[in-house]
Design brief:
The protein is mainly β. Helix content is 9%, strand content 69%. It has one helix at 2-22, and strands at residues 23-34, 39-51, 54-70, 73-86, 92-112, 115-128, 131-145, 155-167, 173-185, 190-203, 206-221. The longest helix is centred in the N-terminal third of the chain and has 21 residues, at 2-22. It is globular and about 45 Å long. This is DUF2490 domain-containing protein.
């Protein structure tokens, strides 16, 4: 009887560890600087792991310059560096992918009562050691304030987005990324947003999905100069 109990316990523990290792972590620090009513700058750092705050395999650093056509239309030019490491530990070499990326972006906003919708269109030029790739992305982002009519200091909010990734080569549908979570804007300068991300990659008709716990810290500098109500969260 004891042997059976030990066997069941071992199998249950192994299964639980496997489930934990499948749930990764995704950490983001975004800094947005408003230069004027029209011009802005942002910088973002990301760190991802295959297991929950272990087996770190990816980091990126990027930035961009934005221009507000009006309060609902913003264009942006961005540049970033992305590194993906081999599986099996923290930053295991050799590096499996090193990417330099340039992109152009248009963001459009509209409201339904107190719900804000953000439509983001992006064209990416991606350089790897193995060659050049082109990618197209569309993200629908929503945010709903809970204890205020708009997201501002001392406001709790709910947020969600879904993003599609397309390429100019087969398979054209490359990826789908879904996020749902909550957040709290501590002050006009700091916002924290925890949530859940599910990312599904299509690779030669063999799909691969991954679950993440995401934690984002957004830092706003000179936010009073911007006429736009911006949805907190990462700008990836």
């Amino acid at each position: 009887m004891r042997i059976w109990l030990l066997t069941i316990l071992a199998l249950s523990t192994g299964s639980l560890c496997a489930q934990r290792s499948h749930f990764g972590s995704w950490n983001v620090i975004t800094t947005r600087v408003t230069l004027s009513e029209k011009w802005g700058f942002y910088n973002e750092l990301q760190l991802r792991s295959q297991s929950f705050y272990n087996d770190h395999f990816y980091h990126e650093v990027k930035g961009g310059v934005s221009y507000a056509l009006n309060k609902n239309f913003v264009v942006l030019l961005g540049l970033g560096d992305y590194q993906t490491y081999s599986d099996g530990g923290n930053f295991v070499k050799p590096i499996s992918a090193h990417e330099t990326r340039l992109w152009q972006q248009l963001t459009m906003n509209h409201y339904l009562e107190r719900i804000k919708f953000e439509h983001r269109y992006r064209i990416e030029q991606r350089w790897f050691t193995t060659g050049f790739r082109q990618r197209y992305r569309y993200r629908l982002n929503t945010a709903v304030p809970i204890n205020n009519t708009k997201i501002g200091p001392k406001t709790f909010f709910l947020g969600s987005f879904n993003e599609l990734f397309l390429t100019n080569k087969a398979p054209y549908f490359e990826r789908n990324r879904f996020f749902v979570g909550g957040g709290y804007q501590i002050s006009k300068h700091f916002t924290i947003q925890p949530g859940y991300v599910y990312q599904y990659d299509y690779r030669n008709n063999a799909g691969l999905g991954k679950h993440f716990f995401q934690l984002t810290l957004t830092i706003d500098v000179n936010a009073d100069k911007s006429p736009n109500e911006r949805i907190p969260g990462n700008l990836d």
